[in-house]
Amino acid sequence: MSIARAIFQGCALTDKGLSRARNEDSVGLHITPGADAALAVVADGVGGNPGGDIASKLAVEHLLAAAGAGLPQRRLDNWLRQAVLAANHGVRRQQGRNDAHAGMATTIIAMLARGNRIAVAHLGDSRAYRLRGGRLTALTVDHTVAQAMFEEGTYSREDLARSPYQHVLTRGLGLMDTPDCPSLLHVSEVGDQYLLCSDGLNKVLPERDIQRILTRQCSPQEHARALVTEANAAGGPDNITVALLQRTPKAED
Amino acid sequence: MATLALLVDGVLVNSFPLDAEETRIGRAADNEIRIDDLAVSGHHARIERIPNRYMDGINDYFLRDLGSTNGTLVNGQRIERIHLRPEDEIRIGWNTFKLVDEQQQPMDKTAYILPDD
């Protein structure tokens, strides 16, 4: 079975927010010259240890370099997981070279689209969402202590929403040699919009607000700007990063 | 060790240790925290101490209402069971409590736990 042809457009935007001295998020977007395949990635450097900004930058650079060498035709989920693990390896190597970067780590959310297939891989609490038919759906489950406590039944949904452990990661890039990185394949439809974001967006903007913004008829650039603007209007307590990918309704056969 | 502080007009008037897996709160004599207040049920609520599975040395405290007549309120909302945070205001009858737990620093920046490999 051949993969249906699809065309992608996208936009990536990162903003320091209003409270943080530095931007420790990184973002990358690679769209092939024919726009028939795309890779998007967001990484949020882990605070507490120095080098979070370097870890997130390195991770994104690794994925963009892998994309530049050629995006796969099939088995997108497998390719994407391997690319994240290679980025993890790169960050681990850098930790060994410089004592100041020994504990650096980052979250990562990566997406790879070709045809009607779309792969999503992640470590940590950066998220992927899909907007289809006006409805926003989360495609990832956070790797946090709060989420783990919810899944095992210790937490109610209300506990999860107000937990002090929402920022405590159970997985991340740079923490171990071979992290357990989920990579799932989804089927995309014409008109789908995909959003990758750091928690500086989804911790301040409720999902109904994200849905409202993405439902507006405008370009990915305008969507990205609106998301960042509203997150800052809601206080902008953290760095805000978004990557948008749209399977366009045009130029398909 | 965490304690439950009894506050009157924001002033600490009593402090109860939460040094057992369960600490019962009520008007009856067999409660660890006994409250002489007609608005409090005989066995009103209990605090459950649960070691956090992911973070060594961290205990979590869950407050559970035991079917009390007037309810157990956290930040003005009636609850059945809830994970207590130090900033929460607990109301039982006419009494206001707060959890005091020095282990639980607010975690407003992304942190991570070390994996076990």
Characterization of this structure:
The complex is a heterodimer of chains A (253) and B (117). With 253 residues, chain A is α+β, with helices and mostly antiparallel strands. Helix content of chain A is 31%, strand content 26%. The model of chain A has no long low-confidence stretch (mean pLDDT 94). Chain B has 117 residues and is mostly beta strands. Chain B has strands at residues 3-8, 11-17, 22-26, 33-34, 45-51, 59-65, 72-74, 77-78, 81-83, 90-92, 95-100, 111-112. In chain B, strands 2-1-11-10-7-8 form a six-stranded antiparallel beta sheet, with no helix packed on it. In chain B, strands 4-3-5-6-9 form a five-stranded mixed beta sheet, with no helix packed on it. The chains are: A alpha+beta (253), B mainly beta (117). Strand 8 of chain A pairs parallel with strand 12 of chain B, so a sheet runs across the interface.
Count every beta strand of chain A, where a strand is a DSSP E run of 2 or more residues: 11
Number of helices of chain B: 0
What low-confidence regions of chain A span 5 or more consecutive residues with pLDDT below 50? none
Query: Could you tell me how far the N terminus lies from the C terminus of chain B, measured between alpha carbons in angstroms?
Result: 30 Å
How large is the radius of gyration of chain A?
17 Å
